[in-house]
Amino acid sequence: MYVALMVIVAGQAAWCGSKALALYAGALFVLFHLRVVTYEEPWLAKQFGGEFDDYRQGVPRWRPRVTPWRSG
């Protein structure tokens, strides 16, 4: 959802030629990144332990995968 929202805002910035929207997209990326790194990932690691570590190693944080991730 975070990636989709950033792509939408960046697309609007490109379509409208708006520097303000481009700055907003950049700010969204920084804020989303900080939330994921400081809150969501530590919570998931606490909840799922080693299983989340395996997932994190196989799935990039912001770049979508082309193929499905499989455990093991």
What would the keywords be for this entry?
single chain; 3 helices; mainly alpha; 72 residues
What does this molecule look like?
The protein is mostly helical and 72 residues long. It has one domain (2-58). Helix content is 75%, strand content 0%. Helix 2 packs antiparallel against helix 3. The radius of gyration is 15 Å and the shape is elongated.
Total count of domains: 1
Radius of gyration: 15 Å
Q: H/E order of the elements?
A: HHH
> How many DSSP E strands?
0
Stretches where pLDDT is under 50 for at least 5 consecutive residues are none
Proportion of beta-strand residues: under 5%
Largest sheet geometry: none
C-alpha termini separation: 26 Å
DSSP summary: helix tally: 3
Short description:
The protein has 72 residues and is mostly helical. The protein has three helices and no strands.
Write the layout of secondary structure elements.
Blueprint (H helix, E strand, L loop, with lengths): L1 H15 L2 H30 L1 H9 L14
